[in-house]
């Protein structure tokens, strides 16, 4: 059983930066494709970013492209979402997700593609 624990997030002014980490246990990170999603109040969960288990294939939503990056540290079994140039509309609860992936270079962008989810962490961007 894979467990994901998120840390980071918080309150930041528009234009600032935040980082969310997602620590995995129960499976080595190199077996896991990871994704990031967010959900704002009254809205459906939306895709933010995804990365293949090999780390070589990465995909971002248009709304965050050029501002957000993802990384993974297999030694620490942790993935991260770095968010720069934050905007008011980035305010949401952010979730990391993971799935055991057979293909090294395939990423997944749908919530139903993932079996395991972090607890969510709040990101609030103020003006």
Oligomer: single chain
Gyration radius over CA: 14 Å
Helix content: under 10%
Question: What percent strand?
Answer: over 45%
The 3D shape can be described as globular
Strand count: 11
Order of helices and strands: EEEEEEEEEEE
Low-pLDDT segments, ≥5 res? none
Counted by DSSP, the helix tally is 0
* Overall pLDDT metric: 96
What is the terminal separation in angstroms? 41 Å
Largest sheet: 7 strands, mixed
Structural class: mainly beta
General description of the model:
With 127 residues, the chain is an all-beta fold. It has strands at 3-8, 10-13, 18-25, 32-39, 46-51, 58-60, 68-73, 78-83, 92-100, 116-117, 121-126. Strands 2, 4, 5, 6, 9, 10 and 11 form a 7-stranded mixed β-sheet that branches. Strands 1-3-8-7 form a 4-stranded antiparallel β-sheet, with no helix packed on it. Strand 4 (32-39) and strand 5 (46-51) form a beta hairpin. It is globular, with a radius of gyration of 14 Å. It starts with a strand and ends with a strand.
